[in-house]
Specification:
two-stranded antiparallel ribbon, 2 strands, about 65% helix, about 450 residues, mainly alpha
């Protein structure tokens, strides 16, 4: 009798790799050496911190700067870097450094990890991703040092490196103070550097290489720059710009005369703070203004921006800019009674439209269930709970001061939400679909229904 072998799909391996990274991080953070007090850390708090670091979310139940020792901070930083790049990418990068050739299974893993449509050039892609990440993080750290070294001395170097990696990986975890970057709300260097790191990582790696390609080979950059970009890059860039400027305008208008936020700011300071808030909702998690002080209008605008998140093949979370644009354009096409969904004079495949709908529906379901469950175990206001669950689902890390007050059940709910939000709704759906498809596809008869 033959023994049946358990074969894991690439999606299952990705899910398992993140789970094991979270579990290992939790065990290390439980140890007395990781705690600032030298005592054992409760498992649920260690698990929460490990999850929020690995899933590059940023929600914390204990202050990162004071609750953990230097060893604990190093563990958290490693988890952030691994989570930002992806466990599979880190392992593949190390293998390439050791001059190990990538097999077909390795390429399939990377293809699923980055959600790419091709297996060609993956070795070069991984090298460029890792190198590009370290270069940008290094530049960010140097810029941060111009502020943090004069303020903290040599410790400012460590703070700069930690903050740069956390910002680029969209983690939003810092070791400066309990109120994130609120003490630097008027500092242009901190604001611009953080926004730069968030935007560069959130736009996605494949957009990087596409922009570099066009800048390198286009003869007339001013005229043909946008025209020569791929459709993916066009959608990602245009949607990102619209969301950042649109979000900043909403927050600027809603908070202009709010005495708890920006009423006493100068015009320049209001513009700077508005843009920072709009950018950080790209799933970064840093804040310069306490989120609980925002009006309901700004809170709802931030919820929408958080749910959308950044762009595909980057470190950002959310349902992604390209996904939302595809669904919106599909809706417009349906309203206009068009058969094809088109963007920039290009037709989108039905598979892309179907996947975009699936991602948004699955993410919405995770967010809805998390909100429902957290509402049952928490006495906070609905807007605070919704803010928390959307932030966890989209791996943002912004909170209206609710995370630290969660009970054990509430912490477990948010831990699960962060994990599911990070591994991706589609990956989760595929992993849970254990039934094998029948190769003999039988089409069912078509029948019209009433919709709307």
């Amino acid at each position: 009798m033959k023994k049946s072998k358990l074969k894991l799909s690439t999606t299952h391996i990705i899910l398992l790799s993140f789970f094991l990274a979270v579990l290992l991080g939790a065990v290390l953070l439980m140890l007395p050496v990781s705690s600032a007090t030298g005592e054992w850390t409760p498992f649920v708090d260690a698990l929460f911190t490990s999850t929020t670091a690995t899933c590059v979310t940023g929600l914390v139940v204990v202050p990162t700067f004071s609750a953990w020792s230097t060893f604990g901070h190093i563990i958290i930083l490693f988890l952030i870097q691994i989570g930002g790049l992806g466990v599979i990418t880190v392992v593949s990068g190390l293998a390439l450094l050791m001059h190990r050739k990538m097999g077909l299974s390795d390429r399939l893993l990377l293809q699923d990890a980055f959600n790419l449509n091709t297996l060609s050039g993956l070795s070069v892609f991984v090298k460029k991703v890792v190198l590009g990440t370290f270069v940008v993080e290094g530049i960010g750290a140097l810029l941060y040092m111009t502020v943090f070294v004069p303020e903290f001395g040599l410790k400012g170097i460590w703070i700069s490196v930690f903050t740069a990696i956390s910002a680029f990986c969209n983690a939003g975890i810092d070791i400066i103070a309990a109120d994130s970057l609120a003490g630097y709300v008027h500092n242009p260097v901190i604001n611009l550097t953080t926004c730069m790191l968030i935007c560069l990582s959130g736009i996605g790696y494949i957009v990087w290489w596409d922009v570099i390609r066009v800048l390198k080979f286009s003869k007339s950059r001013k005229i043909k720059m946008l025209k020569n970009l791929t459709l993916h890059s066009k959608i990602a860039l245009v949607t990102t710009i619209v969301l950042i400027f649109g979000g900043a305008l909403c927050i600027f208008l809603f908070e202009y005369n709010n005495p708890e936020t920006m009423k006493n700011f100068t015009l320049y300071q209001k513009i700077q703070a508005s843009f920072f808030q709009s950018v950080t909702t790209r799933t970064a998690g840093f804040f310069t203004i306490p989120q609980e002080n925002f009006s309901n209008g700004s809170a709802l605008a931030s919820v929408l921006l958080m749910f959308i998140g950044g762009s595909p093949v980057g470190t950002a979370g959310g349902v992604k800019t390209v996904t939302v644009t595809v669904v919106v354009m599909a809706a417009i096409a349906a309203i206009k009674n068009k058969n094809d969904v088109s963007l920039f004079n290009r037709a989108l495949s039905k598979q892309a439209v179907s996947k975009a709908v699936a991602v948004i529906c699955t993410s919405f379901f995770i967010m809805f269930m998390s909100t429902l469950l957290l509402s049952a175990v928490t006495e906070a206001s609905f807007i605070d709970i919704l803010y928390e669950t959307v932030s966890a689902t989209a791996t943002v890390g912004l909170t209206r001061n609710l995370t630290a007050s969660l009970n054990t059940v509430g912490k477990i709910i948010i831990i699960a939400t962060m994990y599911f939000g990070r591994v991706g709704p589609i990956s989760l759906a595929v992993a849970l679909n254990l039934k094998k498809q029948n190769p003999n596809i039988i089409k069912n008869p078509v029948e019209d229904i009433s919709v709307g």
